[in-house]
Amino acid sequence: TMYYSPTLRFIVLGAMMYTLSSFEGSFEALRSVSTVAHFTHFTVAHAHLGLYAFFSIVMFGAIYFVMPRVMSWEWPHPKLIIVHFWLVTLGIGIYFVSLSIGGWLQGLAMLDATKPFMDSVRITMPYLEGRTLGGALMTLGHLVFAAHFVLMALRYGTSRVGPALLHNRKSLPEHQAIAGA
Prior knowledge:
Blueprint: H1 6-28, H2 31-37, H3 41-71, H4 78-111, H5 117-122, H6 125-153, H7 174-180
């Protein structure tokens, strides 16, 4: 289950982001939406949802699955996988929401012929700060992943005897361990 499997967590999140990206892309194809959103940060949010939140997240899941099998060595610190997951999840969430809202407001301001163009730029500033925060969280997650990857490549930790589980099944009460199996 996703409670135990780092690979499954990343793959399921990536699949959810693909679905959301597909839905948003269909939504953006509507003329009423495209009129406001085109040439704004809204489309940048959509691009990152598809490329980063789908593709990169799925690739992280694949790496978490493949590397122990290639190296015959397990990830030394499964808790770092949890930290990585939540940093990139929160990061892309903040990034996407900030750019979507800021881009929509930017588009509305650009459509108002009575406002100078710089108003459409100024209105996005707080949302670009959100983008920076989200990007910083994703970058921190990447650094956690890179450090963990290097530790594994240097064969720090234990040799592979089974999959890296995010939680030890033996530490749960018996009825929960059976239900989670």
